[in-house]
Specification:
The protein has 15 helices and 2 strands. By secondary structure, it is an all-alpha fold. A hairpin with a 2-residue loop joins strand 1 and strand 2. Helix 3 packs antiparallel against helix 15, helix 4 (54-72) packs antiparallel against helix 6 and helix 4 runs antiparallel to helix 9 (155-180). It binds geranylgeranyl diphosphate.
């Protein structure tokens, strides 16, 4: 089943309520589903039936969506637009948006734990997922990001923020894919690839943020409004683009060097990410 249909199915199991509506609103607002697609492409490359990834791909998208809902709140980035639509707290209200994020985060782990795969592998996947999303991963990155507002940070500090805030949740599907495919020995390689991909993706986000209008990009340019350093403001637009392309190349090269992994679909998918305009 497609990721959209799977997410619909999981949400339909919840009791009817405003928080369910808000979770559904944000989950179905037109996200690119990058994290689920990365997981499926890793499984495909290892020649594994991609349905083994279903509960984990849904959990990833739920956690990603929770992070966006909370990031948009007035206490954080205070954004009105996300994916070209009203942010969750604008469409509903702040209390509902906080609960929708809480609901998506907790439900994600219930969904992941419902996997019928080998119990040890499920436990390892949940450990990766929680580690990457939590206070040593994405939440830590968000904290660093908030502290960096109105500060003169250097490139090293910005990289640290990006790697946690964005890189961790892009690395998780790669590592979970290797675990589900029973290729634990490849985990360090996927971790390296994930962080390079995360950094490239975030630099691209910064470049698109200045090159496109909010309408074209589908979200507000809140980094400028919130006086945040970005790869473009620190490196300049051309150097940022050069670094992004170098990182994407490195990712493609590293993918080709994983023994027994057929990288075509993942390389093709990452190339689509590389040329994205939203
Ligand atoms: C609130 C704990 C907490 C964390 C928030 C992800 C995040 C951390 C903040 C979002 C800020 C941001 C714009 C980061 C840039 C990279 C990024 C994650 C972009 C959005 O991801 P996409 O492009 O989104 O995959 P879609 O809308 O396609 O799902």
């Amino acid at each position: 089943m497609q990721i959209d249909a799977l997410l619909e199915e999981y949400i339909s199991k919840l009791p009817d309520s405003t928080v369910k509506e808000a979770m559904h609103y944000s989950l179905s607002a037109g996200g690119k589903r990058i994290r689920p697609n990365l997981l499926y492409a890793v499984l495909k490359g290892y020649g594994v039936d991609t349905t083994v990834g279903d509960p984990f791909s849904c959990a990833l998208e739920m956690i990603h969506t929770y992070s966006l809902i909370h990031d948009d709140l007035p206490a954080m980035d205070n954004d009105n637009l996300r994916r070209g639509k009203l942010t969750c707290h604008k469409q509903f209200d702040e209390a509902t948006a906080i609960l929708a994020g809480d609901g998506l985060l907790t439900y994600a782990f219930q969904v992941a734990a419902s996997s019928q795969q080998d119990a040890v592998i499920v436990q390892e996947c949940i450990s990766i997922l929680s580690g990457m999303a939590g206070p040593a991963g994405m939440v830590y990155g968000q904290q660093l990001d908030i502290e960096a507002e109105n500060q003169n940070i250097d490139w090293k500090q910005l990289q640290q923020i990006h790697q946690h805030k964005t890189g961790c949740l892009l690395t998780a599907p790669l590592m979970m894919g290797a675990l589900l495919a029973k290729h634990q020995e490849d985990l360090p390689k996927w971790e390296k690839i994930g962080y390079a991909l995360g950094l490239a993706f975030q630099i691209q986000d910064d470049v698109l943020d200045v090159e496109l209008t909010a309408k074209e990009f589908g979200k507000s340019n809140s980094d400028i409004k919130n006086h945040k350093g970005t790869s473009v403001s620190l490196l300049g637009i051309q150097a940022a683009k050069d670094m992004m392309n170098k990182l994407y190349h490195q990712v493609m090269d590293d993918l080709g060097a994983i023994d027994g992994f057929l990288s075509e679909s993942l390389v093709e998918y990452i190339h689509r990410i590389q040329i994205r305009r939203k």
